[in-house]
């Protein structure tokens, strides 16, 4: 499947990149980071237009974020899609958002990207400020698109190695952030229990 998607990048060009970033922001299993790395390599070789690729990647990501926010605002809940994985991600995203607000939105666009779609839903469901959500999303998505297309452009001959490193780092950081959030919640609960005694 991944090979087929990557083969479409030189054919469909920036439109494939924009579609991939859009779908990934809705928690669909699309390797958007790898597709952006590959597109960056094609930009470096002159096969794709850099400005158009950046514009469509960013437009796809921002549109996906806004749709996720709108779905959350319209009443989407984790119970609508009864999967254990989604429930876990929603819980983790809610903890991150409660602790760090706008920073959670910004960081979940690029550094903790597996949590991004769920942060979008929770921001909408909790009626978070749309302006703050949108501005933090714009800043984070711009960084995400710039980092991945830039890395693909810079390391055109080593795209697979860069993709492995980036995927492992993002997963480890997300797991660390969730663990830290759960430790803080547990510590608060223990303090509250101790104060009632």
- The Rg value, from CA coordinates, equals 18 Å
What's the total number of strands?
0
Helix count equals 8
Residue ranges: pLDDT <50 for 5 or more in a row? none
Structural class by sheet pairing and helices: mainly alpha
Model description:
It is a single chain. This protein has 197 residues and is an all-alpha fold. The protein has one domain (2-196). It is 81% helix and 0% strand. It has 8 helices and no strands. Helix 2 packs antiparallel against helix 3 (32-44) and helix 4 (50-73) crosses helix 6. It is elongated. InterPro entries: DedA_domain (IPR051311), VTT_dom (IPR032816).
Short recap of the structure:
The chain has 197 residues and is mainly alpha-helical. Helix content is 81%, strand content 0%.
Topology of this structure?
Layout (H helix, E strand, L loop, with lengths): L1 H11 L1 H11 L7 H13 L5 H24 L10 H27 L5 H10 L4 H25 L4 H38 L1
Pfam families: VTT_dom
Protein name: Membrane protein DedA with SNARE-associated domain
InterPro entries: DedA_domain, VTT_dom
List its traits.
197 residues; mainly alpha; DedA_domain; transmembrane helix; 0% strand; VTT_dom; transmembrane; Membrane protein DedA with SNARE-associated domain; 8 helices
